[in-house]
Request: fold
Amino acid sequence: MAGPGRKHFTKEKPKDLKKSIKRLFGFIIQFKSILIPLLISVLIYTICSLTANVFMEKVFSALGTYDIDKNIWTKAPDSKEFYKYLFILISLYVGYVITRCVNDLLNAKLSTRIIKKFRKSVFDKLVRLPISYTDTHQHGDLMSRTVNDVETISTAINASTTSLIGGVITIVGCFGIMLYYSPLLTLVCLGVLIISLLSTSSIARIMEPLHKKSHKILGQLNSQTEEMVTGSKTVIAYNRQDKAIEEFSKKSDEIMKVSTKAEIISGSMGPMMNFVGNLGYFAVCIFGAIFAYKHTGNGIFGKELTIPVIITFLHLVKQFNRPINEVAQVASQLVSAVAASERVFEILDEKEEDFTGKAGFDPSMIKGVIDFNHIGFSYVKGTVVLNDFNVDVWSGHKIALVGATGSGKTTIVNLLLRFYDIDTGKITIDNIDIKDISKKDLRSCISIVLQDPILFQDSIENNIRYAKEDATDEEIDNALEFANCKKFVNRLVDGKKTILTEGATNISQGQRQLLTIARAVLANPKILILDEATSSVDTRTEKKIQDAMSKLMENRTSIIIAHRLSTIQDADLIVVLDKGRVVEMGDHKQLIEKDGVYNKLYQTQFQGNEI
Amino acid sequence: MVKLIWKYVKKYWYLAILAPIFMILEVYMDMILASYMEQMIDVGIQTSNIDFIIKCGVKMIFIVLVGVVCGIASGIFTNLTSHKAINDLRKDLFSKIMHLSYHQTDKFQTGSLVTRVTNDTTSIQQMINMSLRMMVRQLSMMILGTIMVINIDKRFGMLLLFAIPLLLLIMGLFAFKATPYFSIMQKKIDRVNTVVHENLTGARVVKAFNKEDYESSRFEKVNDDHVKTMWKVNVILAFLMPLLMLVVYGLNAAIYSIGGKDIINNYNSWLMNGLIGENALMIGEVNQAITYITMICFGLMMFGMLIIYITRSIASSKRIIEVLETEIEIRDGDFDISNKKLTGTIEFKDVSFHYPDDKDDVLDKINLKINKGETIAIVGGTGSGKSTLVNLLTRFYDVTDGELMVDGINVKDYKQNELRDLIAICLQKAELFAGTIRDNIKWGNENASEIEVIKASEIAQAKEFIDSKEKGLDEWVEEKGTSLSGGQKQRLSIARAIIKKPEIIIFDDSTSALDLVTEAKLYKAMNKEIGHITKIVVAQRIATAKNADKIAVLDQGHIVAFDTHENLMKSCPIYIDIYNSQLNKEVE
Reply:
């Protein structure tokens, strides 16, 4: 009910209409057990409503004709016939109501089924796609494909069975009946119809650029508002409120002008249609009377053009005007549904991650010896991210990766977990190439903590339990204790039952990081990766966690990525990366003595800066 | 809601009155048209009186034309009213939002505020449109139609009197049944969205923990839940239209049988005495009655839908009113800045603070004196209150107890903009805006010359990366600065603060994304170029804080020490602890 014409700017054109329709049809056909009765019900109720018109005429016909001026009944009413036809008419009405009800129910069934099934298959696909897919596609877009596009498709299918099929039957039927009664008068109606179509399409043509423009300005206003509201602290700090208000007013005025114009034009659509409709009515009256007077315009079977026929025509004209507009609307809805289905099928066509692997790898038995063997990798062809990365990690060791942003530290994590596959070289765990290990096994022996802590909208407890579904309460408490979460969790009103909000905005970034550490620890992994996992945790808390960690990670391997050098000083091996290459390697002491890149970094941190 | 709309429509009352008047005229024209049509059938067509048909036809065309003009005019006035009124509302709303305190903005949540300014206002605008036009149309159609039907035959009027409440009852019942489900459905679709969103942003975690199947079943659950509610609503609604149609058709059938019986009686009486009754029904009249009644019933249904739609916009108006009625927390003082000597000293006197929704003090009896030109560092763990402390200075929040003086005058006595002119603050999350790099720097001072812009960017260590951009200072910065790295954003926001030429400059952890070498250069340049400015530096890194004139150590809302680095290293265990956690003892 968003006002007429509003749909215009969501009109998208599918890339390959024919192919997509075919495919969409192939998808829908699986619901044929609902679809067939649905179509039958459409057919029945449309026929009911159409034949009702015929019998309406018969009811009137049975009432005879009376000339008021001459006070003569030119045709006597036939009460028996009248009641017979009235009875048929009423049963047609009842039939219509019942089939319509059945139809609505079937429609509801169909749309819920489509949404349920379609959405599920899109989501199942989505979780099984490789990380590279989610990394390179806008999340908002993927979300809208899974949720909105599927709904668009279902709505369009729903509307098309009812409006499109019902509409077409109505139009054809109307014309059939009209032709049956009087081809000549039908021609008149056709003329009116053409006028009506021309006028709507010309209004739509004027409207479209205006709607596009108002949509564009609305978008600008949206982002302008968002920017000013999100940046409100800065806006206030720099006394820019008045300026912001002034700019907003300008845009707001602009949008007012454009949308007023657009809506006035689309608002005149109604009266215009009304005008054309009345014109039709009027034309039928005049021509009907003329034809009746001249005794022309009889039906194809010689049925005479009488007053009841004219009255029937008047009803029919009204009846087919509506479905024609509807069919036009549904057609454009269908076009956008096909475009939506293209977007959805695009996801469904993506290749899933390969989870197979050779047997003979027991994640619980590994020692955790990792060998990065001359690794080369690039996300985009041509821009090398890692170049001949060659590092051996011994079991039970703690190794640290240091380097500026963009030096390739996080990429190593991506490769080790096979979020991405390496271009050249080989990574082995306990001498087994990770390409031969199934991803499930590989990932179950590694735990990662990411810089950007990801938590779910659930209780703290369940978020921790994510790592191990059957963890006991005690295990969870221990994990929380370990990651120094106990103190702040206990301070929350609901303790560990506290439900985290979206993005876990109800706790601080540092606290979020601590929770993800607790989660990783609960998984009890053989290999632990901390990627800037404590960047927002203050250094004293970090120290405490590290102490606990070194005890836990005895006999296990850990890889630590950090910006703060204090985090990694006690690592067994520090790898200094620069632009995808290893520039220095050794423990803290060796690297300081070496007096290279690491030492320089360290000295600035140690000495502090002049303020 | 009515009050809100009235407040904004009032100004355009002359337009608002014209819209329904023209609409009623249009409907009236429609109605007369129908009665002309009846004449056309009963007189013109029955007797095939072409003269009459033409004469009647000309009148009809005239009526239709007047109707069209009225319809379009009503559209024009409706849209003028609604858009003008909403434009005013939108501006007021935005300006109110701009004057909310930081805490209030945070509480409303940004996304929600944006929707209120855009979507909610549009929904109210459409609501005004509908009530001025569609509601009036359906209502007047119903009233005029009923009058016309009663004119034709009182019995038909009685039928309507019975049918209208019945239709209303059915619609009311369904609305009552179905509406609660709509909000439930919205919540459930939100859940579906959330799960998808979590899986996209958290894809790495899902995969790392091998949770694909778990997530699939989680999605299936929320999706089924949503679909189930949808099914319930659809089942309820599936009965609505057929039921309404049943009433309408029943009405039609009743009119047919009454009308038919009458006409048959007429014929019988004509057979008997050659006359028909004085008020006898004609076929044309029966047809006309059916037309009116169908019109009234569909009008009624539309009316019902409109009501449902309008109730939905009540939610919108509530959300708007909520913002408009929020009391502005932070008010201007009336101190006249022109007769004050600016010295740049700051003094916290027993300052305590707690957030409005929190009962625990974040800051507890803070006493701190900062002299002009001094550089003060504030260190402390997460949640110790460092940021809060500096946020009080610019009055992002007001102290809950004690006094905070700038240049010997309580910050509450300043006019807010005059106070903020004295202070430049760089936030940890550097907020930039769509525009060129130059625009962003000049945010601090619109009248700054090109030389000043370059100078500021030099001090902020931004010159080098700006020069490396293709268009230099004219390089376009995307919304929220997404086209720049964290460190670049921070440096631009520092340049923006420097160009403001404030008395006091505050760095709220605003160099966290800079590497240490760049940070060192920045401080060196600042000391050289703007050494006279009072500087307050909130820092995580000891290295950043070390060389300040004095360092305040905050711990759980208390200042535990306020001294130089050397002295703190001797006397303050917390400071030593922080120091040790960051720097290696053995190298010392």
Chain B has a mean pLDDT of 85. Chain B touches chain A through 176 residues (CB under 8 Å). Residues 2-324 of chain B form a domain with the ABC transporter transmembrane region fold fold (CATH 1.20.1560.10). The radius of gyration of chain B is 37 Å.
